[in-house]
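Folds abound. Consider this:
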Amino acid sequence: MSLPSERGAEVGRRIGVGLMYGLWKPRVLGAWKVPATGPVILAVNHSHNVDGPMVMGVAPRPTHFLIKKEAFIGPLDAFLTGIGQVKVDRASADRTAITQALGILGDGGVLGIFPEGTRGEGDFASLRAGLAYFAVRSGAPIVPVAVLGSSDRPGRLIKALPPLRSRVDVVFGDPFEAGDGSGRRTRKALDEATERIQKQLTSHLENARRLTGR
């Protein structure tokens, strides 16, 4: 099975950055904290449909996001696949997506995950075990990413998007290890890793809100 294209993800990054700066006013903080080489997992909060493309555009490295298969409809299927994104069936343990994600990390690439699973409050309140599994299994550090738009302000044409030309802050946090260093992948180890991750992500989000005044 071939891995999602790194070159495609770089093309996606260029498209993303053009679109995001054309439609909104991104302010990027802490991008230098993303390790320049080696496997990395970007854990992104999810309150707008634009969060994925925004991070894809402003991240310092090409990123392969795990995206729900429902988004791969019509021409979007070929487009998302072409820019190196990973289709995932959230209704089951999607072996193909898991293998592709681990392959990206094994090759020293960047994997983007919305650990809450679906678009919600964007506060990391309900984490799924998937993020812990990828982090513990691959040994890749996690970089928390907070996307803070103006979701509660009037002026949005579409409910799931920030108002056009509004400022959207993307705050990258310090990398951290999810595992306890033992390499254990038992259910207990993953539960402990999930707790550790949740604390780190929630703390980063609070810091990002203080920093940006959002």
